[in-house]
Amino acid sequence: MRVLGIETSCDETGVAVYDTALTGSAGLRAHAVYSQIALHAEYGGVVPELASRDHVRKLLPLVRQTLAEADLKLEDLDGVAYTAGPGLVGALLVGAGVARSLAWALEIPAVGVHHMEGHLLAPLMEDDPPAAPFVALLVSGGHTQLVAVDAIGSYRLLGETLDDAAGEAFDKTAKVMGLPYPGGPQLAALAAQSDKEPGRPGAYKFSRPMTDRPGLDFSFSGLKTQVMLAWRDSDQSDATRADIARGFEDAVVDTLAIKCQRALDAAGSDTLVVAGGVGANKRLRAKLHDICGKRGGRACFPRPALCTDNGAMIAFAGALRLQAGQHETAAVKVTPRWDMATLPLVTSPASE
């Protein structure tokens, strides 16, 4: 089954083709992402109406480009998957409208995919994928959640952020320190190496929020405030900026790691799947690999290019659901707020 995946939940236009006749990473025939970073940079954040309009401009050319790279024609497709939520309603409707139109014209099934399920399943596209049950850490600009995955489509929320998501905290902290949008990757790079010297570990020590109490929920707003005050009261030199960035990154990574260990204990699992934009952070990857290795388990990540929003994860998740016989009606419908626990179970194997 060859499935076209379309992702338009926010400010990336992603398109991919996944072929279930192939295994592992070979199943991803082609994928492309167009980022709107430059469009939104002058506003310091995503402007929903501008995001929707840019999806309209970029989506069809990106579909044509991806099909050409996969050496396929529209008529070769067996299904279409699209992000139906959560996300910005206007942006979601662009992808859903194009996907439903293609499916109707080609007389093939279409399925709406939960954006966070796409992230969660992305590591399963890699060679030697993990098998359920496992614990998943979904960590991005909009979400920070720990989920017990009993089977594909069977998800139990173990903990989530009570305020800012980890990626959002990265971006907001970077903005406070004058780093360009999007600030999260800039801050991580600064923590590793400033123009003159690396950020010194331990020069600034920030709290590890909510780790001194039981439970698996997160909170990053207080940490963000600590950094803001430290920056305000500092000499605001390049070296200090790097030191504060390193202290902030260490605090976030340690907090996520502590909660992941607790979640693995609570679920009785030694396999951790990590997905979402913050999952590309090198220090976080190293820390979680080390923790799981010491437990005799493993931490599984998608390749860095598939950590941020992309069409590949939507094509893959959609292919699993289409193979299970799940598909949508002809109506163009999106769900901007969508609880992943309400998703139906995927009962068929991921093979033809």
Query: C-alpha Rg, in Å?
Result: 20 Å
Shape: globular
CATH class of the largest domain: Alpha Beta
- The number of helical elements comes to 10
Helix content: 40-55%
| Secondary-structure content class | alpha/beta
CATH architecture of the largest domain: 2-Layer Sandwich
What's the average pLDDT? Answer: 93
Task: Trace the largest sheet across and list its strands.
Answer: 3-2-1-4-5
Beta-strand residue percentage:
15-25%
Binding site for Fe cation: 115, 119, 309
Cofactor: Fe(2+)
Family: Belongs to the KAE1 / TsaD family.
Binding site for substrate: 138-142, 171, 184, 281
What does the model show?
The protein has 2 domains: 159 residues, ATPase, nucleotide binding domain (Nucleotidyltransferase, domain 5, 2-Layer Sandwich); 170 residues, Nucleotidyltransferase, domain 5. It has 352 residues and is α/β, with parallel strands linked by helices. It has a 5-stranded mixed beta sheet with strand order 3-2-1-4-5, with helices on both faces. A 5-stranded mixed beta sheet has the order 8-7-6-9-10, sandwiched between helices. The chain is globular. It contains 10 helices and 10 strands. The model has no long low-confidence stretch (mean pLDDT 93). Strand 4, helix 3 and strand 5 form a beta-alpha-beta unit. Helix 4 crosses helix 10, helix 5 runs parallel beside helix 7 and helix 7 packs antiparallel against helix 8. This is tRNA N6-adenosine threonylcarbamoyltransferase. Its EC number is 2.3.1.234. Keywords: Acyltransferase, Cytoplasm, Iron, Metal-binding, Transferase, tRNA processing. It is found in: Cytoplasm. GO terms for molecular function: tRNA N(6)-L-threonylcarbamoyladenine synthase activity.
